[in-house]
UniProtKB/TrEMBL annotation:
Span of domain Large ribosomal subunit protein uL6 alpha-beta: 11-82, 90-164
Superkingdom field: Bacteria
Function recorded in the entry: This protein binds to the 23S rRNA, and is important in its secondary structure. It is located near the subunit interface in the base of the L7/L12 stalk, and near the tRNA binding site of the peptidyltransferase center.
Family: Belongs to the universal ribosomal protein uL6 family.
Family matches, as Gene3D superfamilies: Ribosomal protein L6, alpha-beta domain
InterPro entries assigned to the protein according to its UniProt record, in alphabetical order: Ribosomal_uL6-like, Ribosomal_uL6-like_a/b-dom_sf, Ribosomal_uL6_a/b-dom, Ribosomal_uL6_bac-type, Ribosomal_uL6_CS
Gene designation: rplF
Assembly: Part of the 50S ribosomal subunit.
Protein name: Large ribosomal subunit protein uL6
Organism: Microbacterium schleiferi
Length: 178
């Protein structure tokens, strides 16, 4: 049995979970998220807890059991606390500025790079080199942060570029002199 999958999920105060067949809707103070559960997995709400069960020990059922439980738990955390991902801009002349709800990067290109937030995601800029991506959907927050990082990945020689907060960039020595 999956150790993660069989753990019950406690429903915090202010969160309502509705299960309609394979669709699970989670509603909380920060918003609403929905999830479609894969076919063999079953979800039940009993006594203030969400229980995820699987009908058999087939390979597919086992692999989806823990995943489904974790996705539902992530939705509950998202609608109560939300998720954030920090990014740092490192490099001489590299900076970021807030332009309304969008952010504008100066990253050594011949033009500024403007990034608009998708629905459900918000940006905050601290100083001129820190960006925080926040929202209620863990997957969306991570994807937007990864797409921003992809604009100018940290390079291994000087470490310039956009990196996650706390990310350690492995450095290379460069060319040896004569």
């Amino acid at each position: 049995m999956s150790r993660i999958g069989r753990l019950p999920i406690d429903i915090p105060a202010g969160v309502t979970i509705t299960v309609d067949g394979q669709d699970v809707a989670v509603k909380g103070p920060k918003g609403e998220l929905s999830l479609t559960v894969a076919r063999p997995i079953e979800v039940k709400v009993e006594e203030g807890q969400v229980l995820v069960t699987r009908p058999d020990d087939e390979r597919e059922s086992r692999s989806l059991h823990g995943l489904t439980r974790t996705l539902i738990n992530n939705n509950i955390i998202g609608v109560t606390q939300g998720y954030t991902k920090g990014l740092e801009v490192v490099g001489t002349g590299y900076r970021v500025a807030q332009k309304g709800s969008s952010i504008e990067f100066a990253l050594g290109f011949s033009h500024p790079v403007l990034v608009d937030p998708p629905s459900g995601i918000s940006f905050t800029v601290e100083g001129n080199n820190k960006v925080t991506v926040s929202g209620i959907d863990k997957q969306a927050v991570g994807e937007v942060a990864a797409n921003i990082r992809k604009i100018r990945k940290p390079e291994p020689y000087k470490g310039k570029g956009i990196r996650y907060a706390g990310e350690v960039v492995r450095r290379k020595a460069g060319k040896a002199g004569k």
